[in-house]
Every structure is written in structure tokens, then in C-alpha cells.
Write a structure and sequence with these properties.
The structure is a single chain. The chain has about 150 residues and is α+β, with helices and mostly antiparallel strands. The strands form four sheets. A four-stranded antiparallel sheet has the order 1-4-3-2, with no helix packed on it. Strands 7-8-9 form a three-stranded antiparallel sheet, with no helix packed on it. Strands 5-6 form a two-stranded antiparallel ribbon. The protein folds into two domains: about 60 residues, Antimicrobial Protein, Tachycitin, Chain A; about 55 residues, Antimicrobial Protein, Tachycitin, Chain A, CATH 2.170.140. About 20% of the residues lie in helices and about 30% in strands. A hairpin with a 4-residue loop joins strand 10 and strand 11. The protein contains two helices and eleven strands; from the N terminus they run αββββββαβββββ. The relative contact order is 0.10.
């Protein structure tokens, strides 16, 4: 009888702790005007964290949750993920240093840069962003990636 009562009590405590933890995590979000009120959970809105390239904001129904990249990585607003600082190109105030190339109507994923084979253009949320290939590589339009060696750009 004591074992059954103890087991029930332990399960009740675990449920209570889990529910309490859930409320604590949800309360950590801060209202953010840049976060949409209606989200698609499969494609969350991710934003740069001003003043710290190693952090970013993940939006959820109008709230912004501050998350950190793994050690040594920076958040890339062009790629919407943590990357090496040379790829993320985040400046000291937390904003991207990748120049915008075109207007807000593109629909492609990547394309060749019109004048520089060591660069590519990526479409991010309808805006064309200029990306630099790693040193010594060129944009390979046949494979849609930066490559070393003889490539067709």
C-alpha cells in the first residue's frame, strides 16, 4: 500500500513540476513588435539580437525569446542560422554587414552575382542579399554553391 501511495505521489509531483516548468519557460518571452502575432511553427521568425552577434531572437506569437548560438558562432540574418563569423558577417552592433542588392520581390534561393564570381546572391524574405564565398573559392552556378577549383560562374 505504501509503495502505491508513494508512486502516485511521485507521479503527481513530477506532473506539477513539469507544468510549473512549462509556465516558467513561456513567461521568459518578451513582447517584441518585430515578432508576428500569428506564427507558422514550421518556419519561425528569427531576428538578430542587437548588440550581440552570438545571440538571436526566436519569435512565438508576438513574444521574442533570446537564444544563444553555440560558442564561437554568430547569427546570420541572411541564412537564418548560426554560422562562422566570416559567413555570418555580423558587425559589432548585431546587424548584418551583407549589402542588399535588389528590391523586395525575388523568389529564387541563390543565383550568381552579376559582376563578381567570388560572390552569390541569396533571396531572403523577398530581398536579395550579397554573400561572399570563402577565400579562394568561386560561386559554381551549376551546383548552386561556393566551390574550389575550376568552376563555371
Amino acid at each position: 500500500m505504501f509503495r502505491i501511495t508513494s508512486s502516485i505521489l511521485l507521479v503527481a509531483l513530477l506532473i506539477n513540476f513539469t507544468c510549473g516548468l512549462e509556465r516558467w519557460v513561456k513567461s521568459a518571452g518578451v513582447a517584441n513588435l518585430d515578432c508576428p502575432l500569428d506564427d507558422n511553427p514550421d518556419e519561425p521568425t528569427l531576428l538578430a539580437f542587437s548588440g550581440d552577434c552570438s545571440k538571436f531572437i526566436k519569435c512565438s506569437y508576438g513574444l521574442g525569446y533570446t537564444l544563444s548560438c553555440p560558442r564561437g558562432l554568430h547569427f546570420s540574418t541572411a541564412l537564418l542560422r548560426c554560422e562562422a563569423p566570416t559567413i555570418a558577417k555580423c558587425n559589432s552592433n548585431g546587424t548584418p554587414s551583407n549589402p542588399q542588392v535588389g528590391g523586395g520581390t525575388c523568389t529564387f534561393m541563390y543565383k550568381s552575382h552579376p559582376t563578381d564570381c567570388s560572390k552569390a546572391i541569396q533571396c531572403v524574405n523577398g530581398v536579395e542579399i550579397e554573400l561572399d564565398c570563402p577565400a579562394g573559392s568561386k560561386w559554381d552556378k551549376s551546383n548552386s554553391k561556393c566551390s574550389f577549383g575550376n568552376v563555371v560562374c
